[in-house]
Amino acid sequence: MRSSPAARPDAIRRHNLALVLDHVHRDGALTRAELTQRLEVSRSTMGALVADLIELGLVEEAVPTGGSRVGRPSHVVAPHGGGPYVVAVDVDVTQIVTAAVGIGGVVLSREVITTSGSDIGHPEKVADRAAEQIRKVSEASGRDGPPVGIGVSVPGTIDRDTRHVAVAPNLEWRDVAFAELLAERLAAPAPVSIGNDADFAVLAEHRRGASRQVEDAVFLLGRVGVGAGIISGGQPLHGRDGHAGEIGHTVVDTGGPPCHCGKHGCVETYVGEGALLRIAGRPQPPSEEATAAVFADARAKDPTALAAVREVAESLGRAIASLVNTLNPELVLLGGYLSDLLDLARPEIEAAIVRYALAAPSRSVRLLQPTFGPDSALLGAAEAAFAEMLADPLAAGDTARS
Ligand SMILES: [Zn+2]
Prior knowledge:
By secondary structure, the protein is an alpha/beta fold. The chain has helices at 7-27, 32-39, 43-55, 117-120, 123-140, 178-185, 197-208, 268-271, 273-279, 288-299, 303-327, 338-356, 359-364, 376-391, 393-401; strands spanning 30-31, 59-62, 76-79, 85-91, 95-102, 107-114, 150-154, 157-158, 165-168, 173-176, 192-196, 217-222, 226-232, 235-236, 331-336, 366-368. The protein folds into 3 domains: 7-79, Arc Repressor Mutant, subunit A (Orthogonal Bundle), CATH 1.10.10.10; 85-199 and 377-401, Nucleotidyltransferase, domain 5; 213-370, 2-Layer Sandwich (Nucleotidyltransferase, domain 5), CATH 3.30.420.40. The protein contains 15 helices and 16 strands. Zinc ion binds at residues 249, 259, 261, 263, 266.
């Protein structure tokens, strides 16, 4: 069916507005000349598009000062300093991190609270605390009004149809409508997007970080649990119901240690933070401090700590070898505490990949730390919260003004 002559220019304009905003969101300040070249439009069309985005309060423009380049300087288009923002919430076993994030992924304000083991198992209490944090970071953002969206990252799988947290073993949540619990507690209504932490982490890195331009990448996020976020052929891979990437619960030894999922000998019982502490002879509830202490001792050549780090590195390499055989990624990003493990034991991890993966795919894989460090999942949640506005800035502007 052919669209009406009147509708077509509008559709093209909307599409181009989304493209310009997306480029500025992903790259920060860009000159009008660069944008004109990227979109392959005329200078006057670009001028009109930028004017529309300025009108919507999404970007601002400045004439660069200084320099002695010949010719007319091209205006620089940047995310608007007072533009809309989202709030991202990263719920993990040991802490909840909340941040107000502007266009371009700029963190405007941030709050971290540690959660006691007893609270984290109660979704209502977590929602209470997260709502309170959302209010705080919104106030501290320096921007007017409520956020245009909320993104929540959780260490669990999200049912594709219901958007409920299907299972988050380390939180002991099963079929929890967390997005709804949170929405009920918000002072001002905002759409709540919810996703798996590793899925969000790989999204942030794919959009604006280390795996940009990489079509096949895996983000292996290791905290208390271990999960993979996967980009395959340039697209996120979620599986039929949204549960793909749960490599942490792949059973590698039926006689192994008990796992929170109810089975024994899962990958995360050899690779998660708890495993490092157990193997280092320091069994205790995982915390950033406890893990950091093992790493510090390993760096100081304490033999027990060093042996534990190497053993976990070997198990991690073996888990990555399975991913390499299954997915043939170009890049594996190691996030969470696995970033430190890579720093300390890269040779052991790489040796295990070579030992356990097929030769051909193991030759092309590279291991890297994520660009956004511990904030990948948080910033991926922000990406999800921004998605609607980035897809159609004009509609988002209309909603904001109505
Ligand atoms: Zn398990």
